[in-house]
Amino acid sequence: MSLIKTVAQQARRTNVVASKASSSSAHPLGGYNENKAQLRRETTAQYYRDHDIHNAAKKDSVRLKAAALLFTGRIPSDIDLIRSAQYLQSELPVRLAHRIKGFRSLPFIVVTNPHILKVMEQYIRSFKVISSFNDGRMVKKQDQVEDFTHLLEILLDDHGSVIDDLTQGFSSCHDHVLDIFDGDEGKAHELVQSFLDKTLTSRLGIRLLAQHHLLLKDQIGKNSRYFIPRHDRIGIVESRWKPAKDIEAIARKIRESWMFHCDNPPRVKLNGHTEAEFPYIPIGVDYILQEVFKNAFRAVIEAHSNSARQMPPIDVTIAVNREDFTIRIADRGKGMKSDVINKIWRYHFTTARGRSNYGGVGDLLSMANSNEKELAGYGIGLPISKAYAEYLGGNLEIKSMSGIGTDVYLTLKHIDPHKGHSFRI
Ligand code: ADP
Ligand code: MG
């Protein structure tokens, strides 16, 4: 969980950097915040005649092998930081342009929804700011890298509410999407699913790469030529990640949140390979675990709220193999009926709608944020988790026994498998 703390610190520092950037017009990024309002006005109009975006969208994205982030045992240096900045400088505009194209292919009635339009404009602004950084020339010197890194921090912060905005946007134009397909729920769902899966996993990838750069920068040290040795972490990669430790910490946090709604929420019991450690990027998996635990606690609490007996525990089993690892979260929350199970992977499907009292999770995982403040009710926990799991070269499966309980299986590839292919970011 140490990485989560760092991410939170990062977010705090981002505010400092953002205010620094806006208060000092002499600062190379000063203009960014000052021009934001103007850019906002210009972007929508420019969007339709912007050749830069059009050309960048024609290029292929260069996805990095996860193992490449490990530096294969080598200690990263200033040169690596410059390379990392250069990679992001050329790669991020391509990824953003692809996504802008995705927005462009949405039906007009959807893209003009204020929440969705806001996100599209954010993407266009970010595209412009990154591609025009240093007048479009690759960064070469330390101070340029420093400025570019500050810019990344501001942009990460800027995009913090994208999931909330898209969720609100798509949920408020659900009826319009249905109209487009003459009331065909399946087709409407397909459109939303393919757009959100792509946009949210691309966002995860961009944020992982940007965070990696920021953490590398922290680790290498500001004006230092020397790497501050952190044997347990290189950028976003924890070199000795212990799943049991994250599972316990996340379960504890979610259990505490449920204590606002229930005196004695179920316990979480771990078994299997609880001592296993290996190199991994915890950010995505932590997000998924958080969502799965929220659901498991809710199911057990709702199913047993009228019983005086202690609630049945949530059992978590860890199995680590050479190619991948699986985490199974098994609850006795009475499972789901088939009409529910058929819809759980759909964005916005929930059986908790209107239960706005399910609020309460604090600042856990602000980086990958979604409905982090709420314990249930948006219906996006499972579909986003599945999309993330698949992006990370794995899968998320659910087996439910109606009347008994639910087993969730999260399987993910190692970043450095003994044989076979890892995933790319
Ligand atoms: P939300 O939690 O906001 O409802 P999710 O996407 O996380 O959205 O879950 C969708 C629905 O799937 C839930 O509303 C619930 O009906 C069902 N569900 C998910 N996990 C479980 C579980 N462990 N036991 C019973 N039902 C579940
Ligand atoms: Mg949920």
TrEMBL record:
<keyword id="KW-0418">Kinase</keyword>
<dbReference type="GO" id="GO:0005524">
    <property type="term" value="F:ATP binding"/>
</dbReference>
<dbReference type="GO" id="GO:0005759">
    <property type="term" value="C:mitochondrial matrix"/>
</dbReference>
<comment type="similarity">
    <text>Belongs to the PDK/BCKDK protein kinase family.</text>
</comment>
<keyword id="KW-0808">Transferase</keyword>
<dbReference type="GO" id="GO:0004740">
    <property type="term" value="F:pyruvate dehydrogenase (acetyl-transferring) kinase activity"/>
</dbReference>
<keyword id="KW-0067">ATP-binding</keyword>
<dbReference type="Pfam" id="PF10436">
    <property type="entry name" value="BCDHK_Adom3"/>
</dbReference>
<dbReference type="InterPro" id="IPR005467">
    <property type="entry name" value="His_kinase_dom"/>
</dbReference>
<dbReference type="InterPro" id="IPR036890">
    <property type="entry name" value="HATPase_C_sf"/>
</dbReference>
<dbReference type="GO" id="GO:0010906">
    <property type="term" value="P:regulation of glucose metabolic process"/>
</dbReference>
<dbReference type="InterPro" id="IPR003594">
    <property type="entry name" value="HATPase_dom"/>
</dbReference>
<dbReference type="InterPro" id="IPR036784">
    <property type="entry name" value="AK/P_DHK_N_sf"/>
</dbReference>
<protein>
    <recommendedName>
        <fullName>Protein-serine/threonine kinase</fullName>
        <ecNumber>2.7.11.-</ecNumber>
    </recommendedName>
</protein>
<dbReference type="InterPro" id="IPR018955">
    <property type="entry name" value="BCDHK/PDK_N"/>
</dbReference>
<keyword id="KW-0597">Phosphoprotein</keyword>
<dbReference type="Pfam" id="PF02518">
    <property type="entry name" value="HATPase_c"/>
</dbReference>
<keyword id="KW-0547">Nucleotide-binding</keyword>
<keyword id="KW-0496">Mitochondrion</keyword>
<feature type="domain" description="Histidine kinase">
    <location>
        <begin position="289"/>
        <end position="416"/>
    </location>
</feature>
<dbReference type="InterPro" id="IPR004358">
    <property type="entry name" value="Sig_transdc_His_kin-like_C"/>
</dbReference>
<keyword id="KW-0809">Transit peptide</keyword>
<dbReference type="InterPro" id="IPR039028">
    <property type="entry name" value="BCKD/PDK"/>
</dbReference>
